[in-house]
Predict the 3D structure of the following.
Amino acid sequence: MNLKKALPWLVLAAVVGFAGWKLHASHFDWVGFGRSLRTADLRLIALAAAAICCQNVFRAMRWAVFLRPMLRQAGMPRVAWWRLVGSQFIGFAGLSIFGRVGELIRPLLVARRTGLTFSSQVAVVAVERVFDLGAFGAIFAVNLLLAPELRGLPYLHKAGMTIAALTVGIGLFVVGVRVAGGAIAGAVKWLVGLVSKAAGEAVAAKVLSFRDGLNVIDSAADFGLATGLSFVLWATIAACYVLVLRAFPAPVHDMTVGDTIVLMGFSIAGSALPIPGGSGAWAAIVLAMTELFHIPAELAWGAGMIVWLVLNMSVVPGGLVYAKLEGVSLGQVVKVSETGE
């Protein structure tokens, strides 16, 4: 357990060490880096922060759609989407402060508010990711079609294939569990049971619980509404990137919307790294800007840092305000979410 908790910090130390070595070897211009930050347009950055806060509203609206079948089956009334906004802000604030363990805050808070099970809301998070990856994958593909000059960029084809594979893989897993959860649970129980019988039974129980919570879409209308909200949500996130990049001087200012969506892809890949605060996204953005678009390192690091701050930290004040208003202790709710109780 100690090694598990220390791993993200070890990865962060390794990334920081490598970045420091690269900066030293490339004779990084710290004066230019400071100038890039001082000359950034704060008004556009503030608008970008507002856009990120708005995407939590769209997430709340989509979550309310996912809840409809569960609430109907439980004989409960629908939950208004605005009652879920606070859970989104608090959850993402916890994710920014505590790292990956904070991912379970949102489902825990929604479960408490609605009276539904925690496992059913964890299932909602999984379905969320399917819709998120599907929406961004479609945006990425359309971007390549409308901006053919991007196809010549190194690694871009592989990045697109990776995003598509992740989308398909997660989708197949969710559909498989929904359709044949019992068979999958039995197979997992047998496979994991070869190592530990107790672990096999525990994992199988979680698969079955996950299957029971997957009743989040039961009509074409709800599917269409959730899909539409997913595209609006990701268009809002893309607007955030565009606003931050426009806040910096050329050549960052001159990057196209197509270039920006490519940066988003790298950011998503980088955020998957187990690094506290999602700072892997920052490193990935800098890598893409310097290696693919040949942006000077000083501008790339400055713009990448502001994108990371806006994406990950701008929600923290709102999350703390909502936590205060709703009487939620972030530290306590993180401990509870780890046990699922």
Observations:
- The mean pLDDT is 81.
- Residues 40-339 form one domain.
- The chain has one domain: 40-339.
